[in-house]
Amino acid sequence: xxxxxxxxxxxxETYTVLTSSAASDLYKRQAxxxxxxxxxxxxxxxxxxxxxxxxxxxxxxxxxAPDGLLTGLGGxxxxxxxxxxxxxxxxxxxxxIDALPIEELADTPHRSTAPGKAHLCGHDGHSAILAGVARxxxxxxxARGRAILLFQPAEEDGSGxxxxxxxxxxxxxxxxxxxxxxxxPGVPLGVxxxxxxxxxxxxxGMRIVxxxxxxxxxxxxxxxSPAPAIAQxxxxxxxxxxxxxxxxxxxxxxxxxxxxxxEPAFGVAPGRAELWVTLRTQRDAGxxxxxxxxxxxxxxxxxxxxxxTEITWHDVFRHCENQPDATRLLAAALDAEGIRTATGxxxxxxxxxxxxxxxxxxxxxxxxxxxxxxxxxxxxxxxFPDPLIETGARIFIRCLRSHLF
Length: 405
Fold this sequence. Notes:
alpha/beta, four-stranded antiparallel β-sheet, 8 helices
């Protein structure tokens, strides 16, 4: 790696095109980051399985000579720390690194090589943005404070941020500010969406198992079928959602995502059923009330039928809220880089586990437009737009420069 630059000299403006040689250098860096992003895309790994992805991230970070490198953080997370020589703020930039259990249908040279797995939420692109920031920090160390780049695992199932924070080593890197971004289809390419307050709704998955007793299909009365209870719950749980606009603090939504009754046999009346639903509210406080109401409905329906019940909770996401100071930090960076902004249709109904970092730092997340014609997130033909790598890196670098240089 190159020697650390003196803190007595201004940082190199690596994303400013001044000469033809600088333009050539910038083009090469963009091409390298695009190639690296596509390599991640070819080798997707699901939440909690990001072993190869983490290894590629460490390999990319090593030439930037971070002052600290934490691996295996909260599972397969990686954090790189770049220290200044004077006291100052600590800024954490976070990206997510996991993929989805969906078969990719896009016909691109860099399509997924893992059957049934693909980067269809753009986490490969988020990682490439932080890779660009890392390479810049390799040439331009902070004058004060420290920059922390966190490559977080297991965002898709809501467990990653909680595990990173619970890792004892997180205490070594607790920041003053935590910033993140997520690209967003439907928004013009490169346009940022940002505002203070609730950014993402809270959500969690409810798995309900009802157990009775099987019987011959000719004599169902001799068994104990969960079918009537399931039929009741399909309506009553869904009706718990208040609907309306997610901008309303009282917004709530209950979505049935999976149901199964018995086994696929014509001669057997069922004795077991399983129902999966997703609960969604604007705020955590609303989620507590919705959970209590949903559990009461299950107990009531099962009790009337004499069924045994089991309820487990999965994919638990807190609401994500943009703190004012952190939001202003991102807004100033967008303004300095000349990036157009909009308030958008916020908060998003979709959840994000980045909200947990708000318990430990002034935090904010922004959205970055992926194009109005882009396939939606989690669609089988989605692919991250590579021009956003440079745009996202510029925004984050500007945030660091404003406080650490």
